[in-house]
């Protein structure tokens, strides 16, 4: 992928607007009320944060394993960023979800985290446009959905896409995002999240897990209770890792960091 291809994608959007004047290109997230730059793309890892991916193969091998088969060799690839800032991590190995995911070896209870991702459409066709799907699983349970819009109207006008429970920014099949903070394929996006583990009395739930999430600097979930595990580990009291989903399309990741707040409170 190169800058020329990204430029061509921009030209396609411009042509779409000219051919369909009813299409509203919408406001980018950074122009929306409440935008927080510190929770968006480029947010630096705080001192003491875990950085499981630093752009090197060594960091991948040291800090991640495959899911659901941890003894499987890591199939994900390191590739050049489509916007030219070094090496990034690309989904690879599977043709459907749940077979070639990547999860941190370290397991967490309470944490703050940050993940940046870019949607690149169909894997291997060297085009930006096209459907992409992935997800970020908090505690390898609760999926923050990553997905391109589907349907003619949503594809033509993603900024006014009424995102459903399986759309980007949703806790899959549980909570829709409060706002649409969309950025197009080929542009880096971010999820920034603060997660509080559920409380248990043995194997009985006392309080559900809760999460606050910023999508591209816009708060889209505010301390919402999350109870639905969409793949990965069943809901329970165990600490678990941060998982990135392989779904068969081209999705790339960078600037992944986690602040272990349980360790912080113990210290």
Task: Describe what you observe in this structure.
This protein has helices spanning 3-19, 57-63, 152-156, 261-266; strands at residues 50-53, 64-67, 77-80, 87-90, 101-104, 111-119, 133-138, 142-147, 189-196, 199-201, 204-207, 209-215, 218-226, 243-244, 251-260. With 267 residues, the protein is an alpha+beta fold. The protein has a single domain, classed as Exo-inulinase, domain 1 (Jelly Rolls). The strands form 3 sheets. Strands 1, 3, 4, 6, 9, 12, 13 and 15 form an 8-stranded antiparallel β-sheet that branches. Strand 3 (77-80) and strand 4 (87-90) form a beta hairpin. It is globular.
Name the poorly predicted regions. 1-24
Largest sheet: 8 strands, antiparallel
Q: What is the CATH-assigned architecture?
A: Sandwich
- How would the global form be characterised? globular
CATH superfamily: Exo-inulinase, domain 1
Radius of gyration over C-alpha positions, nearest whole angstrom: 18 Å
Can you count the helices?
Answer: 4
The structure class reads alpha+beta
Helix proportion range: 10-25%
Count every beta strand, where a strand is a DSSP E run of 2 or more residues.
15
> What's the N-to-C terminus distance?
45 Å
Number of structurally distinct domains: 1
**Percent of residues in β-strands:** 25-35%
**The CATH topology is what?**
Jelly Rolls
Could you give the order of the helices and strands?
HEHEEEEEEEHEEEEEEEH
CATH hierarchy, class: Mainly Beta
* Averaged pLDDT: 90
């Amino acid at each position: 992928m190169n800058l020329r291809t990204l430029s061509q994608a921009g030209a396609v959007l411009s042509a779409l607007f000219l051919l369909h004047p009813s299409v509203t290109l919408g406001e980018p997230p950074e122009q929306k009320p409440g935008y927080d730059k510190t929770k968006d793309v480029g947010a630096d890892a705080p001192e003491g944060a875990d950085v499981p991916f630093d752009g090197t193969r060594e960091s991948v091998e040291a800090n991640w394993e495959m899911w659901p088969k941890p003894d499987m060799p890591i199939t994900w690839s390191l590739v050049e960023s489509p916007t030219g800032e070094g090496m990034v991590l690309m989904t690879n190995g599977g043709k459907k979800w749940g077979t070639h995911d990547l999860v941190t070896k370290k397991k967490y209870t309470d944490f703050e985290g940050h993940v940046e991702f870019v949607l690149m459409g169909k894997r291997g066709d060297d085009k930006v446009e096209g459907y992409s799907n992935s997800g970020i699983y908090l505690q390898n349970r609760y999926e923050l959905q990553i997905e391109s819009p589907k349907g003619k109207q949503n594809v033509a006008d993603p900024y006014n896409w009424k995102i459903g429970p399986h759309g980007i920014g949703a806790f899959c099949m549980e909570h829709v995002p409060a706002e649409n903070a969309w950025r197009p394929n080929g542009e880096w996006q971010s999820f920034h999240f603060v997660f509080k583990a559920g409380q248990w009395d043995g194997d009985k739930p006392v309080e559900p897990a809760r999460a606050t999430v910023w999508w591209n600097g816009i708060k889209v979930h505010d301390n919402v209770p999350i109870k639905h595990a969409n793949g990965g580990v069943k809901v329970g009291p165990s600490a678990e890792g941060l998982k990135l989903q392989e779904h068969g399309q081209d999705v790339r990741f960078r600037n992944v960091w986690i602040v272990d707040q349980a360790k912080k409170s113990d210290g």
